[in-house]
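Task card 7
Instruction: Convert sequence to structure tokens.
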Amino acid sequence: MRNALLATACVAVMLTGCSQSTDEAKTEATAAPAPPPAVPPDPSFTGLTRPKGDAQFGYYLPTTEVKVGNYKLDNLHIAGQQGFNDWESGQRTKTYAPVMLEFVDVTSPARKNALGNLTYSVKLKVLPTAYLVTDERVRMVGSHPKLGEVRIDARIDASALRKSKATKGKDGAVVITGPLQVGDTPFSSVSFTWLGGDWG
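Output:
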């Protein structure tokens, strides 16, 4: 009887030790530091700075998959002067801005549109609270309830963009490159090609 009690006590001690080890491992995993942001928050970045002309107009498509959960980056859009005029004069909608990032829910129903592009029924459009577009740079900060704050600070290769426009985007050249932060998920370098006109 005494031996049975001792054996039972030993098993209980061992199970308690295992439980503590598992709990400690979970705590350590939970406490793991978040990766540093690809684009750090910058409270001084405010305002709406537009380009001087329409050279940057178009849709920019990521060359590799950029995905957070079920949401995949579909494109970066930069408008022409009319789009900037409307937005900055207060003619705004909930689904469009002259500088915006569009994500799609890859679990939502999809179909091919008239251009042969696969389009998803659920789209998340990140509209800006601040943007800056020049011949050499595109910077934007915005947010979406399902993605959190989104920040991009990328370099525009003006020469590559001109050449790509001359071939109507058929050259597939990388024209924008830079870091992107989507909520807590950093992307140290995202590259885009140019496509003019309608996309989705």
